[in-house]
Every structure is written in C-alpha cells, then in structure tokens.
Amino acid sequence: MSNSFLPYGRHQIDDDDIEAVVDVLKNGALTCGPKVDAFEQAFAEKIGAKHAVVCSNGTTALHLAVLVAGVAGKVVVPSVTFLSTANVVRMAGADVVFADVCPATGLMTAASLKAALAKSDGNVSAVMPVHLNGQCAEMKEIAAIAKAAGAAVITDCCHALGAEYTGETGGRPGDGQYEDIGCFSLHPVKSIAMGEGGVVTTNNDTFARELRLLRGHGMVREPEEWADSAAGFDADNGDANPWYYEMQALGYNYRATDMQCALGLSQLRKLDRFIARRREIAGLYDKLLGTHSNMVVPIERTNLASSAWHLYPVLIDFARVGKSRAAVMKALAEIGVGTQVHYIPVSDQPYYRNLYGKQDLPGASDYYGKVLSLPIFPAMSDEDVHKVVDALVKVLR
C-alpha cells in the first residue's frame, strides 16, 4: 500500500469480520442479543478480569465508570489525554485536578500524582491514570498512592488493549490488579475496531451489576431483582408478568449492538496478531530513526509493560529544526504521509482554563510542544515505514 496515503491510524477489516456482521444481519438479533454476552465473556477472558461490560464507545465507558465509582469532590486526571477522560468527571458533577506528565513519555507519574494530590487540598475521590500511546503508567506506585489517599483508581486503557505488564505478576491493563475499574475504546484506529464501542472491566460484582443497569436506562427485567412484587407478578399463579420491567435508577442508552459485538468478537481473535505487527513496525521505526536523533527522537520507552503501540509518537524540537509543526505536517501530507498531534493538554482548553485558571504543568507543555504521531497500523508494510522515515527526514532537512 506504499502508493496510497498513509494515515496515522487505520482499522483492518477482513472478509471474516464482514461475514460475522452479515450473519447477524441475516440471522440474529440486531441488538440486545447473544453476541453482546459472547463478546463480554471473550473480552473478560482476554483481559483477565472477572467482568467486562460493553457499551457504545470509550467515552460512555469512562462515564459509566465514574458514575458507579461514585466520584465526588475532586478527581485527578493527567493533562495529556483525550478530552473525555476529564469531561466525564465534570459530567458526574466533580472537579478535575490536572496532574503533570513526564515530558519524555506523556505519562502521569507517581511523582506528578503526588504533586496533584498536594495541590488538591484533599477531597479526592478517584485517580484516573491514562496508558498513553500504548505504554503503561506506573500503576503499582500510582495505585498505592491512590489507596493511601482513599481514592478509587479508574484506569483509562483506551490506548492499551493488547499491552502486557512485565515483571513477576504479569497480566494486562484493566485486569484489576491495580485498578478498581478499567475503560477501553474500540474506535476504528484502536487495537481492534467495533466501528464505535467501549468496554468497562472490573472484578467488583456490584460495580458490574450497576454498569449494566446504567447503560440501559436503569431498567431491570429479571424477576428476582424486582422491587414491586404486586405489579411484577400474576396474583393468581405467581408467575412473572411477561411485559413487566422496572426502572430502578436513572440510566442512559449506552448499549452496544449485536452487529458491533459480532465485529468485536471477530477482531478480538486477531488482537495478538495485530499487536505483534504494531510492535514490529515500532521496532523498525526505532532502528531507522536512530541515525537521525539530532532531529527526531522516539518517545522514551518505559519498562513497565510491553506496549500495544496504539500510536507511534516522536519528539521534534521544531524551533531548533527551524520549521513549525504545522508546516512539517502539511509538507508530509503532500508527500502522502498523515500525522497527528496527541494531545493538546486538556488543562489548556478554554473550558477548563476558564474554570480553573491557567495551569503550571511544564511537563505537559514540553511534551505537547514537541510531539508528532507517525503512521502505525497492522496493514503497513516495511516499505511504508521506510517511506515515512524518508519523508520525515526530507521535510525536516
């Protein structure tokens, strides 16, 4: 595909993925059917969590997570993340305390979490670490600090599906060894695609029940859980009334369809292969860019986990190169190479600046000022990677 435009990310849909969706269209329930349960079970097994609750997208996964965790007061969120990580805190009626990040990785660290807690003056109900670009945050340390502060841990794993922890315990992000709740996105440029889709993982039975309740308008159809037996059961024979349901909480329509879950199931079977190819591409980038470290540097590697490489970011000192990032991106696009910036610090967005004032987060500012995401997706060939590096070097020179 070296003759075509290379975007920074792209889904890979094969014939078996299409067949799985078509089978649902022809033969199955389009929503609220068996593919939802099957996908949840398979996802939970893959992650190593007790429960997986599928929903409509990554943002709704995060929103459901903060709701069932009962966030109140303040929640610590790293400044470098997508908008939704912070926005769901506000949707739940709590305030965001922005933590700084490592300028070399973009990740919140144990030290920056401690600094955020210190400036919060207490009343922090949750900490939301983000596994950025596919690399994992310092979860063992972060979880210990959060526990000492009496805060829940809700991990944004949207970039990290397929990552694996190193060390004695092993495991995967979202498996519950460090967090109370993990949240995933299955947007088309993520590790696997569902079109749109999200998943919440937890080992807490109560959380799992509440997650399913809130994603479906708070409706309960199981007779054993009804509160009003007089309305729910036939007075003559005691059988459950077949039409009856109860709304036991104020919920949302955050469901995922069977069509989405059929695609998700098919894609999930290929996750390991997709991640293996992403790692090969990242390794080739590392090798090719190593001879150009005076102009461009890959983000610093952590030793906490084997990265899922959702993104391949590099750091460029644009002022020293003498070209603006906008000019570099435009020139690359003209050669057929798409790039993106992940992310503008959320604390710098007008909404949050007006709410909390200008934040002094030098790590986030430094990272944002230099970062550029290069193309990475499983269908890329080695020739494509060479094309990207040659184009980048040519433009920077």
Spell out the blueprint of helices and strands.
Blueprint: H1 15-27, H2 34-47, E1 51-55, H3 58-69, E2 74-78, H4 83-91, E3 95-99, H5 110-120, E4 124-127, H6 139-148, E5 152-156, E6 164-165, E7 181-185, E8 198-202, H7 205-215, E9 219-220, H8 229-232, E10 246-247, H9 258-268, H10 271-289, E11 296-298, E12 305-306, E13 312-316, H11 318-321, H12 325-335, H13 350-356, H14 362-370, E14 371-374, H15 382-396
Parallel strand pairs: 2-3, 2-4, 4-5, 5-7
Antiparallel strand pairs: 1-8, 6-12, 7-8, 9-10, 11-13, 13-14
Q: What does this 3D model show about the protein?
A:
With 397 residues, the chain is an alpha/beta fold. It has 2 domains: 15-220 and 248-270, 3-Layer(aba) Sandwich (Aspartate Aminotransferase, domain 2), CATH 3.40.640.10; 272-396, Aspartate Aminotransferase, domain 1, CATH 3.90.1150.10. Helix content is 40%, strand content 14%. The protein is built from 15 helices and 14 strands. α3 crosses α4 and α3 (58-69) packs across α7 (205-215). The longest helix has 19 residues, at 271-289. The relative contact order is 0.18. The model has no long low-confidence stretch (mean pLDDT 96).
Provide a brief overview of the structure.
By secondary structure, the chain is an alpha/beta fold. The chain has 15 helices and 14 strands.
| Count of spatially separate domains | 2
What would CATH call the class of the largest domain? Answer: Alpha Beta
Which descriptor suits the 3D outline?
globular
Main β sheet profile? 7 strands, mixed
The topology string of helices and strands comes to HHEHEHEHEHEEEEHEHEHHEEEHHHHEH
β content, as a range? 5-15%
Helical element count? 15
Terminal residue distance: 26 Å
Uncertain stretches of 5 or more adjacent residues: none
Computed over alpha carbons, the radius of gyration is 22 Å
**CATH fold-level label of the largest domain:** Aspartate Aminotransferase, domain 2
Which CATH architecture of the largest domain would you pick? 3-Layer(aba) Sandwich
Helix percentage range: 40-55%
CATH superfamily of the largest domain: Type I PLP-dependent aspartate aminotransferase-like (Major domain)
Strand tally, please? 14
What would the average pLDDT be, to the nearest integer? 96
- What class would the helix/strand composition place it in? alpha/beta
Strand arrangement, major sheet: 1-8-7-5-4-2-3
